Amino acid sequence: MLVDVRIKRFRPEQDAQPRWAAYRVEAEPTDRVLDALNTVKWRHDGSLAFRRSCAHGICGSDAMMINGRNRLACKVLIRDLRPPIVIEPMRGFPVAKDLIVDMDGFFAKYRSVKPYLITEEPAPQAERPQSPEQRERFEDTTKCILCGACTTSCPSFWANREYLGPAAIVQAHRFLFDSRDHGAAERLPVLNERSGVWRCRTIFNCTEACPRGINVTKAIGEVKKLLLRQSVK
Amino acid sequence: MPRPVVRHQYDAVIVGAGGAGLMAALEASKTCKTAVVSKLYPTRSHTGTAQGGIGAALGNVEPDSWEWHMFDTVKGGDYLADQDAVEFMCQEAIRVVYELEHMGLPFNRTPEGKIDQRRFGGHTKEFGKAPVRRSCYAADRTGHMILQTLYQQCIKQAVSFFDEFHLLDVLLQDGRCAGVVALCLATGEVHVFHAKAVLLATGGFGRMYKVTSNAHTLTGDGCTVVFRRGLPLEDMEFFQFHPTGIYKLGILITEGARGEGGILRNGRGERFMERYAPTLLDLAPRDMVSRAMYLEIREGRGIEGKDYLHLDLTHLDPSVIDRKLPDIADFVRTYLGVDPHRQPIPVQPTAHYAMGGIPTNLHAEVLDERGQVVPGLYAAGECACVSVHGANRLGTNSLVDIVVFGRRGGQRLAQWAPAADHLPLPKEPEVMAQEALSRLTTNLGGESAAQIRDELQQAMMAQVSVFRTEAGLKEALAAIVQLRVRYGRVDVQDKALRFNTELEEALELGCVLDLAWATTVAALARRESRGAHCREDFPDRDDANWLKHSLAVLRDGAISLSAKPVTITRFQPKPRVY
Amino acid sequence: MTTSLSYSSPKPSGGFELWAWLFMRLSGLALLGLALGHLVIMHLLNNVDAIDYNFVAGRYVGWFWRGYDLAMLLLAMLHGLNGARTLLDDYVPARRRRAAVTLLYLIGAVFLVMGTVAIVCFTPVTAPHS
What we know:
heterotrimer; A: alpha+beta; Ubiquitin-like (UB roll); Fumarate Reductase Iron-sulfur Protein, Chain B, domain 2; five-stranded mixed sheet; two-stranded antiparallel sheet; 9 helices; 7 strands; 33% helix; C: mainly alpha; 3 helical TM bundles of succinate and fumarate reductases; disordered N terminus
């Protein structure tokens, strides 16, 4: 069948402002939106730029706004969308070209929460013991693929780009609730800043946007409560 | 018009930021000024899609030993693997799994708090007696956890990254490596990295096939640049097809699904693996299961007579699927609308893994045609051929390979580079890369890269996949030769410098064309069936003539083949039955 | 693009936002009780027609209802002010934020003082009422 696709395009070397381009592409209902983008690129206009790699929702390259919602282009099927399919870059990051955004700031914030295991104890010969229950405690936030869909769906982030954003907080959560980690004292001050978790207004857009089904708002809430517990201790 | 050139000098440059590259970067950056050059943001690397687990004989849930692991790997590889390297890998596997855990990798746990392990294809106890639980896993996202954990450690160690830089060339001077040339995708500039040592960890090249589990970006860039510079590629004829790709899409469904009890069924509902591998059944090595599936389909026993079969998980406890295979449950729901609790999953074999690649020794040092080390050049991971996988890789061993040899290569490089000198660079080191770029953007030939890629993928899928024949391979070779000629006329429409992804795709097509060529030439020459290379016209393994590695070298525009002996230490070749 | 992996983080804000967040939750809960109580008394147990100067004066003889109203005034004003502050924080550009927040605090202070004075300094006089 033929599908109408409208794409917000921006060629940095030519355009002062983004412009809309419309394409009519051949696609199956069970195709991914990514397949439609590839068809545009391979059959209609090779200059269309977007990131993609694994094409099944794991690498996190192709987060973009599709029909008004942040999603991975490889994880939404044409049949599940009402035509025309309207595709824009994620909101809130500088647009580099077409659907490609500059994610350097995003990754800088990710790094700022010290997203790595911090422990003082010397490692044992074998593994550090951890019970299945302790492991389960942070399971949800280990799923994050750093695609940016949550952060760029967050009105608090749109309003104020200093905000750490849901993705960085999710990454902090993954370590704060890992029984093997002792880095809370280093991590929590960053989260406790004005630009930290307190900018979260519990809007739930992040949770809705997450292609991995992470309960992002809940994770942020847990970090807030942890900060409170640490402060009253 | 030549592009702007930017020059850098580092002690070590790692190309590729998957498991092998990041592991190497962690080691190298301990002693050397190290840069990681990657065409993706590191967390986008394909290591992240590995699902089922990493094999190591920890013996956490039942007795196990690295010797059994070694035996399985050698037998799984149809005795083509170099056994000294396999021995090293299986011993080191235990250490690196603990090391990954110490770095923070969140493995699933046993009730006692140890790393949990599960069954996987071809992994057995007591040299083949019964399946063993050897695969250390984190749900069905083990690769994701490895990639995240290693990148986290790189952040901790303040490793320098050049993200979204596409490898164009490797610089060799008098048989030594002097650096690499890469394209900065964001700006379109050409960057020359002058380095004492380079480690290539650029991954596989499954994108030469139509149905593949591999990412769009897996185009063998690292293998191709060394091949074009006259270094050999080893065992290119061995390309693994994973039995359970989602029908038509090729998306992987982990062998862990069968490890947890999943069963393959044909159109009559039969558990057909009973006829092909009576002991290991559905957990036989991948080459055997894929062949069995092709035969079932060919004999009309596909589902409704079509070209797919069913992976049945419906008899499993739904909570096992939800806890241990959550992502694949999500995939089949998303892409097929199938509920794995209640419906079987349509699957077909999918191009998955290159056993061949850049020849290295077990220190990840690249070897030339005569088996001599190329000083300063290292390779690890899927782009390398150590060879630990022989003619067919066992499940979980790719993750073992990347962490063991990524680490080993990084260590070796860290020892070697501080005392070494920077070789002087040639006068215009970027000239070959500049020419290739300008040819693609100024051509007026009217050929479309997408069209050529389609035809290549079809030809490879039809003739150079699970079953091969002389006639079919010749047909594919003729097609590839034609396509390479047409590739010379590809013109990239997008003339922009910044994020010219059309240009990048054209460069990648050039790589898969060359690698498909080498694969087909090597497959045509090997007149036997071994592991993943199955010749219908030569159905038996022929140890007398073919127990040897192949080396393909590009010389004067043609590929010449030579042989390299196999290292056999503990296990003499035996018939391979399961 | 080259990414340097160092990121300097600004100094912690001393936890003000944490306490503000906690205050919003606690004051919200308290206001729920206070406001519901107020509603029940004013509109269910009594009705608007019955509420006049004498009614208020009668309640303000002792300190219980003054305390009740004062608590409601303080909590509601601070809760609302803090909510408005976060809005300004989110949506007013950095260079005008300080002025906007100061203005907000000023307005808030005026209402707070007026209300407090009214509640605390109220002296009942016998109404010249029929």
